[in-house]
């Protein structure tokens, strides 16, 4: 949420932060939403044009789909939050020169609960 800085100026959210907020609103529902509905779901009073621009940017990136079912201008996420996070993790591993070392560092940073879940997934073999 945009806040007021130490000198009374309004702090701007990054484009990535705004995109994440829009995606969070879309993930919170089962149906496509219009830009006005997304705007209503975001805290911080974003202008309608800003929301529309963010939705278009997300559409251009393939992260949201436009609904073709009669609700003109309605959007829905192309992937759920877990799928998008997993994709980002794979992309991060692919960028580095040593993905195994990166994975080792990642696993060392897991909470006890996350480690238990990872061990259970690997032991289950149902990946």
Automatic annotation (TrEMBL):
Q: Which GO terms describe its biological process?
A: negative regulation of DNA-templated transcription
Q: Which InterPro entries match?
A: BlaI_family, WH-like_DNA-bd_sf, WH_DNA-bd_sf
Q: Which domain of life is it from?
A: Bacteria
One GO molecular function term of this record is: DNA binding
Record keywords, A-Z: DNA-binding, Transcription, Transcription regulation
Sorted alphabetically, which SUPFAM superfamilies does this protein's record hold? Winged helix' DNA-binding domain
Which family does this protein fall into? Belongs to the BlaI transcriptional regulatory family.
The protein, known as: BlaI/MecI/CopY family transcriptional regulator
Originating species = Streptomyces actinomycinicus
């Amino acid at each position: 949420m945009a806040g007021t800085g130490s000198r009374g100026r309004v702090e701007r959210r990054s484009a990535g932060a705004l995109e994440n907020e829009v995606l969070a609103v879309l993930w919170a529902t089962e149906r496509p939403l219009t830009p006005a509905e997304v705007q209503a779901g975001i805290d911080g009073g974003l202008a309608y044009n800003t929301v529309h621009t963010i939705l278009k940017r997300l559409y251009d990136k393939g992260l949201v789909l436009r609904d073709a079912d009669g609700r003109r201008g309605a959007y829905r996420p192309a992937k759920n939050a877990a799928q998008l996070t997993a994709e980002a993790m794979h992309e991060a591993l692919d960028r580095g020169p040593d993905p195994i070392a990166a994975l080792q560092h990642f696993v060392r940073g897991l909470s006890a609960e996350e480690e238990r879940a990872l061990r259970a997934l690997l032991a289950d073999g149902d990946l």
